[in-house]
Every structure is written in C-alpha cells, then in structure tokens.
Amino acid sequence: MRISLILFLIAIQPLTAILSPFYQGQAEIEAILDSDELQECLGTTRSVSFITKNEEGWIVGNGVYQVLVRVKYDYDGKLGPANFHLSFDCVRKVPQDGS
What we know:
With about 100 residues, the chain is an alpha+beta fold.
C-alpha cells in the first residue's frame, strides 16, 4: 500500500508542475487584491475594473488610475507555486480613447 502511494505521488508531481502557472497567477492576483498598498494607490472609493498581465507584471486599474504591480519570485528549486513579493509602481492615469 505504501509503495503504491509513493509511486502515485511521484507520478503526479509532473502534473502539478504543469498546472502551477495557472495557480501561480491566481495566487498573485489574490495577493494583489488583498494588498493594502493597492488600496492606497487606487483609492478606496473605487473598485478594480481591470487586471492585465504583461511582460513587466500585472497592470491593475479602476477606470481612472492604473498601477503596475511587479512580482519578484523567491526561487527555491521546488516544483509547484513559488513564493513571491509584490512591488507597486507609480499610479498613472488610465489613457482615454481619442486623447
């Protein structure tokens, strides 16, 4: 029984590595939305209206302002979700169409 369990766990480890980018992104978004710093940057009177991933990190905005959130990873050589820290760049006005 124990050998079967060990073999099963070894067999599914590559599958968890395949799924980790999705779960990593989900964990990053949850951490961003739970951050007090995001609320300070965007103001507490407006809710988040968009979140977009780009090469630099996540762009989070509320229709008036947007902030770039950079994700810095703490790699430890393990498979699965990585530990990370967030840094928030300057708040910018959301570009308006036609201006």
